[in-house]
Every structure is written in structure tokens, then in C-alpha cells.
Design goal:
Distance between the termini: 36 Å
Number of helices: 13
CATH class of the largest domain: Alpha Beta
Structural class: alpha/beta
Largest sheet: 5 strands, mixed
Strand order of the largest sheet: 5-6-1-7-8
CATH superfamily of the largest domain: Reverse transcriptase/Diguanylate cyclase domain
Radius of gyration: 20 Å
Oligomer: single chain
Strand content: 5-15%
């Protein structure tokens, strides 16, 4: 029998953050069985994506191709195939929309889904999430990680910790117990610089951050950033799942160093920059 955490009251939101694992590389491994289990890099001059086998050797997205091969000399390097990735993404989103119309696409390979009202028709949120993962694996042939929580912020944190190819539910009432032991980098907006500034003041975990008064935090890192981090450290994130974000003036950039990407790689990089702008608009 499902426990109380799987029977949310009508007022409680249950949101999913669904994220395709190492998407471009996973599509390549799906389409070429010879790549299964082998370190795979998409892109030559610049790493556009790396399989988990390659990531385990230190390869990262946007890394120089030569550096990637130095770290992982037995990696298989393949050119990007944007059409194949777009088709795979469309197939996955068909599964999402077949489950609920409340889908907010963040990029080609991730989305939020609101499953709050599906308990009677589809079962507990964690059951909905497991069926989504199974359908995507069976129908599209790709691994999918999902986080289940009461807010967008926490669902995304959960999905990151479910990777690769996993499912993690943060139960209703257990949000802060899950969140507070994590490092401050788990919070959106905390990069290396902010992490260092907080560490200088003895703040290393989300729980320690939550204990800092908001005004004190704002005096450390600025009014807007302080307010946001204080709210998220208490899992306060009222944003609904929505198909459209409010348009703003915003940009994104990617340093390429001395590498000169080819035409296909440039197309993928531009697509990823556009997706990054989209995510920032929605955030």
C-alpha cells in the first residue's frame, strides 16, 4: 500500500523534472549498437556531448576535443546529427503529452510535468514517473531520469541525484530533510564564486544557508540573489508548470577557446545556446 507521501492532498503539488541522460550521446549509442557501453563523444573540435563512460574519464561538454581524447584516448568520436536528436526529442515529448497536458519544455532533452491531478486516473506520482521512464525506454530507446517533488526547484535537484537512468522522489513533508544536508551548489544561482563567498562565512550546506537571516544573506551577496537563495533554501518556489515563459531581454554565450567548430558542431552549439536562453527566460 502506498504511504502517506504518495497520497498528496489536493492542495499539494507533485511535479516531475524529466531529463534525458547524456542525450546526444545516448541517441548515438542507441542507433549504433557497436557504441553500447563504450565511451562516446559527440563533436570533434568541441565536445558537444559525452556518454557516461566518457564522463567517468573526465570528459565534459564544451571541452576541447584534443583534451577530451587525451583524457579518454579510446573514446569513439562521432559527428553531431541534429535531425536525429530532434526526432528523438519529439518522440519523448509525445510520451510526456500523452500523460498530461501540463508539460513545460526546458530544452530539447528536459521538461517539467505537473501530475498533481492524476492520482485517481494514473496512480501515485512516483508510479506515473516510473511508467514514463519505462515507456521512453521501450518506445524511444533512451534512458530518462526523473525527480519527483513539490516544487520545480526540488524536482530538478532530485533528478540530478537520480542520474544516470534513475528515479528519486522527495516525499511530502520530507523536503527539508532531503535538501538541507546538500552542498550549497545544489541551489540554482550558486556558482563557484558564490560558493566561495559563503564558505568564507562558514556556510557549506543548504541547511546552514537556511539558518542565515535573509537580510544578512542579502548583505553578503546582494538583495535579489540573497532573497532568491533564502527562499530556495527553504524550498519556497511557487512557480507553476507552464508552456510559455514571459519574454525578456537575455542572452547566453559559450567560450570556444582556440577551437573552430565545423558547420554541424556550430549548428548544435547555436541550438544549445538558444535552449539556454529559453531556460533562463523560464527561470
Amino acid at each position: 500500500m502506498p504511504g502517506p507521501a504518495e497520497h498528496p492532498a489536493e492542495r499539494d503539488r507533485r511535479l516531475l523534472h524529466a531529463d534525458l541522460d547524456a542525450f546526444y550521446a545516448s541517441v548515438e549509442q542507441r542507433d549504433d549498437p557497436a557504441l553500447a557501453g563504450r565511451p562516446t563523444i559527440v563533436g570533434q573540435g568541441v565536445v558537444l556531448a559525452a556518454s557516461y563512460e566518457a564522463r567517468g574519464r573526465g570528459v565534459r561538454t564544451a571541452m576541447n576535443g584534443r583534451e577530451a581524447l587525451r583524457l579518454c584516448p579510446d573514446a569513439v568520436v562521432v559527428p553531431p546529427r541534429m535531425k536525429a536528436y530532434s526526432e528523438a526529442s519529439a518522440a519523448v515529448f509525445e510520451v510526456f503529452f500523452d500523460t498530461t497536458p501540463e508539460v513545460e519544455a526546458l530544452s530539447i532533452d528536459e521538461a517539467f510535468l505537473d501530475v498533481s491531478g492524476l492520482y485517481r486516473s494514473h496512480g501515485a506520482p512516483v508510479q506515473v514517473a516510473e511508467r514514463l521512464r519505462e515507456r521512453v525506454r521501450r518506445e524511444v530507446g533512451l534512458p530518462l531520469s526523473i525527480g519527483v517533488a513539490s516544487t520545480k526547484f526540488l524536482a530538478k535537484v532530485a533528478s540530478a541525484r537520480a542520474k544516470p537512468n534513475g528515479l528519486l522522489q522527495v516525499p511530502v513533508g520530507g523536503e527539508l530533510e532531503f535538501l538541507w544536508p546538500l552542498g550549497v551548489r545544489a541551489i540554482w544561482g550558486v556558482g563557484p564564486a558564490t560558493e566561495r563567498r559563503l564558505a568564507e562565512r562558514g556556510v557549506h550546506t543548504v541547511g546552514e544557508l537556511a539558518a542565515v537571516p535573509q537580510r544578512t544573506l542579502q548583505s553578503w551577496i546582494g538583495r535579489a540573489a540573497g532573497a532568491q537563495l533564502h527562499a530556495l533554501s527553504h524550498n519556497r518556489d511557487p512557480r507553476p508548470v507552464t508552456r510559455r515563459g514571459r519574454r525578456k531581454s537575455i542572452g547566453a554565450q559559450q567560450a570556444l577557446g582556440r577551437s573552430r567548430p565545423g558547420r554541424d558542431e556550430a549548428e548544435v552549439l547555436l541550438t544549445e545556446l538558444a535552449e539556454r536562453v529559453t531556460r533562463r527566460l523560464r527561470d
